[in-house]
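so my prof wants the structure for this chain in the tokens format not the other one, which i didnt know existed until like an hour ago. anyway here's the sequence
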Amino acid sequence: MRIVIVGFGTVGQNLARIIQSKEKQLLKEFGFHPRVVAVADRSGVMIDTKGLDLERALTVKRMKGSVAQDPELGRPGVDAKEVIEGVEAEVVIELTPTNVTDGEPGLSHIKTALRSQRHVITTNKAPLAIAMPSLMEMASYNKVLLRFSGTVGGGTPILDLAKKCFNGNKIASLRGILNGTTNHVLTKMTDSNASMDEALKEAQASGYAEADPSYDIDGVDTACKLVILANCVMGRESSIRDVKIEGIRKVSFEKLEKARGKNSQVKLIGSIGDEIRVRPEPIPRNHPLCVRGTLNAVSFKTELMGEVTVVGKGAGGVETASAVLRDIVDVRRTLAK
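here's what i got, hopefully its the right format
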């Protein structure tokens, strides 16, 4: 399996390390050897059609800031789309940052890969939140696979559980905590009486929040994940324009105290029912959704099994990269059938 990695930040670098460490296991258990033939970042690309030395790519990235600075294999200024179209590969892994304004550059990367009849694995929520139905149709038309386990739940297989374990059992609705940053912030505010600014600074210092946490705090990240769940799990064609969004910026001490008085905690809840929405809600402390810290939790209301809740770690470099590995194996298994 020849692979092109587009985006070589935290997730991409963790993926490279995982592929290195799992190489023998993948060959033994699943009968294939993933061979990364190109890596692209913002400054250019690094290409070796025989297969890159991933340790070399990681070292160049760490020492020089871009894989394109490799003296022999680097190509500064080369656009990722050129590599997707021009380098022979079976799979393109798209790991660029989320941009909900227009989905770029990830949206163009994915479209280019699908048109070039490459299977696509992505952790980029924005292209799916903006254009998921059309991307799924494009993948089907070109007879290729589009996988995105890492977009929801990071290391917790929320999508896999919903798609593979509820066969024949309709999911009527769902609600959950889908953003670890806001959950951490609200937990800190509740436990320590910290202000939102204080809780955010602590989350940033601990690596749980980005320098600009707007997507998290304003509920946009949760909204993107709801769109993916709606399309993928519930067969409900939608985009982020269909989501009613309210973040946690207006959560006050009074609201937290009122919830505490009722033995509840305020959480940022994403839900899909009659409507798709994100908003802060009080959750009883004894409810399975009332998880602490950076944990994610989703409760599925099913036709035959009642309510089923899955709890686990949210996004993180290693966790999200592990989801990409799951998708790589899934692509291999699907193609081998």
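also thought this was worth mentioning. The chain has a mean pLDDT of 94.
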